Amino acid sequence: MRLNEDFGVAPGKLEELKARILRLRIDLRLVSESFSRGGGKGGQKVNKTSNRVQLCYPPLDVRVACQRERKRSLNRFLALRELVDRIEMKISPETSERLAEFRRLRKRKSGKHARTGDSPKHTPEPLS
């Protein structure tokens, strides 16, 4: 897989992704890439072109598929970013921004129950 082509994203996002790939020491030569026809919303463009991107990184057995956008190049970038996220979650969970976001959401949701007095496992006691 090459990163020197135009993905249709801001140069800053591409540089950030390249920096993460270098930091995690991901060998892009090992990433296998395949394309297939997408489905769902998008009309003719999605149904007639092979814009669904599937990436596989065999050393960690990580697989990702993306067909969120109509453009294949943008789907390649999004799939690669998702692949890097998942690899980072596996090999370096303490630096993973995605895991930190999951923790923040969990903490916020648990705080919501405490503020309202509700508990997800709370069952009222029967009146006698």
Protein described:
By secondary structure, the protein is of the alpha+beta class. It has one domain: Double Stranded RNA Binding Domain. Strands 1-2-3 form a three-stranded antiparallel beta sheet, with helices on one face. It has four helices and three strands. Helices cover 46% and strands 12% of the residues.
Low-confidence stretches are none
Average of per-residue pLDDT values: 83
> Could you spell the SSE succession in H and E letters?
HEHEEHH
Structural class: alpha+beta
Proper CATH architecture: 2-Layer Sandwich
Strand order of the main beta sheet, please?
1-2-3
* Main sheet specs: 3 strands, antiparallel
